[in-house]
Sequence to fold (433 residues):
Amino acid sequence: MKIYIETYGCQMNVADSELVTSILDNSNFKIVREIDEADIIIFNTCSVRQHAEDRVLGRISNEMARKQTNKNLKIGVIGCMAQRLGENLQNQNKGIDFVVGVDQYKHLPEIISNIFENPHFESETMVNNKEIYEDLYPIHSGKLNAFVTIMRGCNNFCSYCIVPYTRGRERSRPADEILKEIENIGKKGYKDITLLGQNVNSYDFNNVNFAELLRRINRIETIERIRFVTSHPKDLSDEVIAVMAESEKVCEYLHLALQSGDDEILKRMNRGYSADHFYTIVQKLRKAMPEIAITTDIIAGFPGETEEQFQRTYDLMEKIRFDYAFTFKYSPRSGTKAAEFTDQVPEEIRLTRLQKLIDLQQDITLQKYREQIGKTKQIYVERVSKKSAEEMAGKSRDFKITVFPGSKELIGQFVDVKIIDAIGWTLKGKILE
Ligand code: SAH
Ligand code: SF4
Ligand code: F3S
Fold:
């Protein structure tokens, strides 16, 4: 039977889709890349904002039409929205055949076989705060870069966030297993890995902390580049900053979510740090790694946010000058603390503030890219450029897409490229011989 998986949400979901691919592949299902070939369509969903849910619900409704011509087609929902809404999803769309939550993926083969034998609706969303999918190795979708899950769940309960409810409690995978997985990946030719967790800085398994894990991964010969997401400012230690600076494979790149530049709002968000503390970390990072690129997440219009408080976020973004910022309009998530706050900011104001942040960041990002002109950057060549067959594209260590004249044979290699121009958010350069 052929299965098509469509993935939404964060890298954790991308990694989970690879895990699910491996689980299904082991049970003799075939994963296909074309939706038209599928006997089963699986949507791996996200709940982080209402918009994310609405979008995938729309997609599911559209694909339901296929059932008219393909009577045996089954449609399933997995991921965070499956976990959050469970069997209630069937009220949203009667055509959904199965719903499987984030801790129950091992049961997917059995559930799918059951509903083919005897067509009925099945839902399995029990929470299992111990599930770390031990001994299962994901089948990676790319050939050059791989995600490696080092922990699952989150204990932080930021007051706006649904993730601790959909993903359950934080648990770290054994360090040995992570290292074994990365060694295997390395043997297959992957040179660039990204470690995944909702808060990787609180990784802890039998006294191996995140800094120590990084040191050990840095020793794996076949791996050339290491990045990780996501870091939480309250847990990013000096030790981790030092290890980043001294480990040659750990890239000069960090995603560090600020969320707000106002202390009162940060407190109401339950973030556990002040704007000053955040700024101090940024300074330490830049001192230890002058070439580091820092990206962030910001929420506009959190409940109770006044114009002045918003301005503090704006000012801090201007002062820090992130390389890029993912900016979001606050979206109330039922069940979270912030959704209960009575001082919700009106939608139009949330939107206006969001637009201001987008405009500000756009300028800064463009400037940051222009500042790269004249530098020589090491590029991991990943693909032919979308615009020209004579050009290759890849990423720098600080995660900037760079395009330069070259041939396909370079794919998978590291080359030094001199940056000669910046067009929008793409660097242009030429290879140094
Ligand atoms: N664990 C990661 C983030 C996971 S969610 C971290 O802590 O960095 C990704 C981003 O979505 C968050 O950083 C936040 O900026 C945004 N987000 C989460 N819940 C949201 C909500 N209810 N409304 C708007 N944005 C939200
Ligand atoms: Fe959500 Fe906060 Fe956990 Fe990130 S750290 S997943 S924002 S609760
Ligand atoms: Fe979305 Fe779940 Fe990730 S809610 S952001 S897919 S952890």
User: Anything to note?
Assistant: The domain at 376-431 is CATH 2.40.50 (OB fold (Dihydrolipoamide Acetyltransferase, E2P)). The pocket of iron/sulfur cluster (ligand 2) is lined by residues 154, 156-158, 161, 163-164, 198-199, 232 (CB under 6 Å).
